[in-house]
Amino acid sequence: MLDKFRSLLILISFIVIAGGLMFYMYILANGGEGLFGTSEGSLQPTNFEALTFHADGTGNANGPGYLLCDAAICSKAEANGNSEPFSIPAERLRQIVADYAEDLPAVTTRSFNFQNGQFDFLERRPGEAYPAVISVRIFRETDFSSKLALYSYKPIGSSSASNLRDRAENMIARLHRIADRN
User: Where are the beta strands (DSSP E) in the chain?
Assistant: First the structure.
């Protein structure tokens, strides 16, 4: 009786181990995207022209946020302020924004559209479970000046509008310091 029980236990163990190995091989071969979702996610780049935003935080699709954008660009939004001016060409500002993301370990570039001059960053500060999204679009004003539209929001998790404003103002201050150095 004990031999039959031991044989059955060994057979069940073998089946479980073989099944686990086959599942592991399936995940390696197919990436497991059907089972676990994709690594890309479904977060879309910010469309500043179609963005609906209210500075008081009511009715925003992404919850509280902070938006700096000219009315001509963000015609459907009620921004917290106008786009930030820079006294450098748009091409140089684009390079400064790219360098900004590379220099900070808490910031990763989610997407970049060279044609529109738009960056979408994820910034996760220590102690935060979910990152905030900072979308930046660079506009050429003249040959020697440019403007930066910025939208900061947190699609998952909780955050206050003041935290998002501080995050955006911190980024703009750093960009101005880098631009003034060069």
Answer: 65-68, 84-86, 107-113, 118-123, 132-142, 145-153
